[in-house]
Amino acid sequence: MRVLIAIFACIYLAACAKPEINANVTTFYTPELSSIAGKTIAVRAESAANETSLEFLNYRPKIARKLDFVGFDVREDLADPDYIALVSYGVDGTEQRSTTTASPAFGGFGLGVGVGRSPFYGSVGRTYNTQTWSEYNRYIAIDIVEGGTAQSDSPVRVYEGRAQSAGRCPTLAGVFDEVLDALFQDFPGANGKTVFVSIPWDGSCE
Fold it and tell me: Is 191 helix (H, G, I), strand (E, B) or coil?
């Protein structure tokens, strides 16, 4: 009975666990990034082909709000902003995962004593269950470059940030807000390091 109670308790706790999006966030930046207050910036797709993409047009205002929050003056109407944020994103491959769990198997064994001699009931061994699934590598990358150098072959970068998240949701759109939150948590982050960030998620991959 105690074993059964423990099993059901584990199942209950697992069902009640709140889903999260986990991301590895890596950032690099120059000292220039410490004086961004009031500096103008525009958000552009890293690939010019995505500039008119409906997906990018959906993401751009979300990124703009983040940049505004950390101190930039986001101005999409300027032809020569101080900085340009070049954005790339997508799903970069898949990885196969598997896990094996063991649980006790219950049944009758032996015979009791006395009238009726009913069999004993309890654990008679263990059963094993293997689950396999695909995890998708979603990412958002933002490079902030000096506006006057954005069109050159070697734009001057002041910030490079990348958030990578692996999970079962096969599209970035379903977890974009959470991965973006991870990238901007404690902006600009730990220079030259990768940190692990967990963001609450509603579990909806839409």
Answer: strand
State the Cα–Cα distance between residues 43 and 142, nearest whole angstrom: 10
Burial level of 1, CB count in 10 A (0-12/13-18/19+)? exposed
* Angle of CA points 183, 25, 96, to nearest 5°: 115
DSSP string, 97-130: EEEEEEEEEEEEES--SSTT-PPEEEEEEEEEEE
Tokens read off for 69: 């929050």
Distance between CA atoms of residues 157 and 33, nearest Å:
10
User: Quick check: helix, strand or coil at residue 70?
Assistant: coil
Residue 33 three-state SS:
helix
Instruction: Using DSSP, state whether 32 is helix, strand or coil.
Output: helix
Locate tokens 């340009």: which residue? Answer: 84
Stated pTM of the model: 0.76
- In tens, the pLDDT along 108-159 reads 555 555 555 566 566 666 777 777 747 899 999 999 999 999 989 899 999 9
Residue 3 has φ and ψ, to the nearest 5°, of -65, -45
- Give the span between the Cα atoms of 20 and 146, in whole angstroms: 35
**Strand locations in the chain (E):** 20-29, 40-45, 73-74, 83-109, 120-146, 157-167, 193-200
